[in-house]
Specification:
By secondary structure, the protein is an alpha+beta fold. The chain folds into 2 domains: 117 residues, Umud Fragment, subunit A (Ribbon), CATH 2.10.109; 45 residues, no CATH class. It is built from 2 helices and 13 strands, in the order βββββββαβββββαβ. The strands form 3 sheets. Strands 1, 2, 3, 4, 5, 6 and 7 form a 7-stranded antiparallel sheet that branches. Strands 9-10-11-12 form a 4-stranded antiparallel sheet. Strands 8-13 form a two-stranded parallel ribbon.
Length: 191
């Protein structure tokens, strides 16, 4: 999460809450008392830099344990009544659409769903790891499309396979595309 100018809003970055938020979304933050927080609420925590946004997964009178929906373990820092935090109440997409953020029991249901997805991804990765040496059998995705923003997309017979963001990060458009298609070798930037 990028540090806000004021503590009333912030821009989300990162992966720990992906699925709930999309990188680049603007989060509306509200000041709230520690006693009113519930398990399942999402909070922005300003106790360390960089600031971060995680969900409360356990709470008692003395503290609250937070965790990212896509993380495999809780945060080491326990949220206390003296901590610097704000409740995340709304998210505004890059296209300007605002939505309320679920908290309480609805938030915990969303957390459990994200955790199941994370476990399934790990399981699928473990199953597919033995087949990684067979990558030479994959189809080549050589058709390249360049966009004005610097994004490059590769496709095979008109099927979009993967994209490279201007930052250089390559992302397959679906997990199965990684199994069946291979990308052209990347040229060195020193040439």
């Amino acid at each position: 999460m990028n540090g806000p100018e004021t503590r009333n809003e912030a821009v989300y970055t990162g992966n720990s809450m992906r699925g709930v938020f999309v990188p680049g979304e603007t989060l509306s933050l509200a000041e709230t008392a520690f006693e009113t927080l519930q398990t399942g609420d999402i909070v922005a925590i300003f106790e360390r830099t960089p600031y971060y946004v995680h969900r409360i997964v356990e709470k008692n009178a003395s503290g609250a344990v937070t965790m990212g929906d896509n993380n495999d373990r809780p945060d080491p820092l326990v949220l206390t009544p003296e901590s610097q935090f704000r409740l995340v109440v709304r998210a505004k997409s890059l296209s300007g659409i605002e939505r309320e953020i679920a908290g309480g029991e609805a938030g915990m249901e969303q957390f459990r769903c994200q955790q199941k997805k994370r476990k399934l991804r790990r399981f699928a990765e473990a199953l597919l790891r033995p087949f990684k040496p067979l990558k030479f059998l994959r189809l080549p995705a050589y058709t390249e499309t360049r966009f004005r923003d610097g994004t490059v997309q590769w496709s095979f017979a008109g099927i979009p396979v993967a994209a490279r963001a201007p930052s250089g990060r390559i992302r397959y458009l679906h997990w199965s595309k990684r199994l069946f298609f291979r990308l052209p070798a990347q040229k060195s930037t020193n040439e």
